[in-house]
């Protein structure tokens, strides 16, 4: 009779995500994962061909975590790109390790930055349509300018160099939108 499997793929990805969230992707090693999942390394390599395969699944989980975060983020304004910008900056502040893994990683598993932010929900596409609907002639170009600004602010929060309040951030993003428009 075959032995019952006690460590599932879900157990492993949950344990890996916990390590990622607190310590960063560099610390998601087979040994650390085995310790966190309370197993040997054998179940890890029974489920995954290698750590790269696990990292790719972990990347997808982290992307989904961001999209869920954005979906639940309170909408404060109808000015295009402001809510997206606020959520992105706040995500970087609150979930530094996940932000680094998803948005600052050199390996994005074939996804562009646009794909990561847009997601399957069409976050960026919706903002571009909103800007177009509000009379912006080149909303895609406006998005690029806003995104450089937003991404820079989010990266500043990682180093502790961004200390604006939510209200100040909102106003800053509104001002940037108006000046880029």
Textual characterization of the structure:
The protein has helices spanning 9-23, 30-37, 42-47, 51-72, 82-94, 96-103, 113-118, 123-133, 139-158, 166-180. The protein is mainly alpha-helical. Helix 1 packs across helix 2 (30-37), helix 4 (51-72) crosses helix 6 and helix 8 packs across helix 9 (139-158).
Task: Summarize the main sheet.
Answer: none
* Count of discrete domains: 2
Radius of gyration: 19 Å
Oligomer: single chain
Number of strands: 0
- Helix count, per DSSP? 10
Order of helices and strands: HHHHHHHHHH
Distance between the termini: 69 Å
CATH topology of the largest domain: Tetracycline Repressor, domain 2
The share of residues in extended strands comes to under 5%
- Could you say what the CATH architecture of the largest domain is? Orthogonal Bundle
Low-confidence stretches: none
**So what's the CATH class of the largest domain?**
Mainly Alpha
Q: Given the helix and strand composition, which structural class is it? A: mainly alpha
Large-scale geometry: elongated
What is the percent of helical residues? 55-70%
How would you briefly describe this protein structure?
The chain is an all-alpha fold. Helices cover 69% and strands 0% of the residues.
